Amino acid sequence: FFDKHGVDNYLLHGCKAKSDEHVHIGYDEKEGGICWSHNPTMPPFTCKVEEPLKGTKLGGFKSFIEYKIHTQISGNRVVGRRYKQFDWLHEQLVNKFRFICIPPLPEKQIAGRFEQEFVEERRRQLELWLNRICRHPVLCASFPVQHFVTCELTDGNNK
Predict the structure, then answer these.
(1) How much is the pLDDT for 62?
(2) CATH entry 1.10.760.10 includes domain 41-157
(3) How do the residues of the chain divide into helix, strand and coil, expressed in percent and rounded to 5?
């Protein structure tokens, strides 16, 4: 029994997770249905995922690709992120917002992950994924998303 997005678990057991964030549901008369309302203090935004660079740690024993994320929140922000940090954000959103369908990340790949074509395609897919999240009126204002696109991590907490 696999429960990747929590829907089955929620339907069977309910949601025990509590959130300190308020979610607003508004009625859009144009569409004639219920829709998410935007947080007036944090409207949806877009990001650019650019400049993939190969990095190493542990004296060169471990290699990774880091992408630069550019946003226009509170001025021009640029932060570096690895795939595993996108994976962290995905997990945070799935756990915190069980009532929202969070799109899946691009698949992981072990072999050939440093080849130029693969790196560029993953960059493009990560940018599409992140922009879907950042355009969502609820997700874009959440702490995990705001933290992900604005806070530069130090080596000590770069997990």
Answers:
(1) 86
(2) no
(3) 35, 25, 45
Q: Are 81 and 66 in contact (CB under 8 A)?
A: yes
In angstroms, the CA 79 to CA 74 distance is 13
pLDDT-derived band at 9 (thresholds 50, 70, 90) equals low
Q: What's the chain's average pLDDT?
A: 78
State the pLDDT confidence band at 157, using cuts at 50, 70 and 90.
Answer: very low
CB 56 within 8 A of CB 149: no
Query: Which token pair is 140?
Result: 């874009």
Q: With b meaning 16 or more CB within 10 Å and e meaning fewer, what string describes 102-141? A: beebeeeeeeeeeeeeebeebbeebbebbbebbebbbbbb
Q: Where are the domains of the chain?
A: 41-157
Its pTM stands at 0.74
Both tokens assigned to 42 = 């944090």
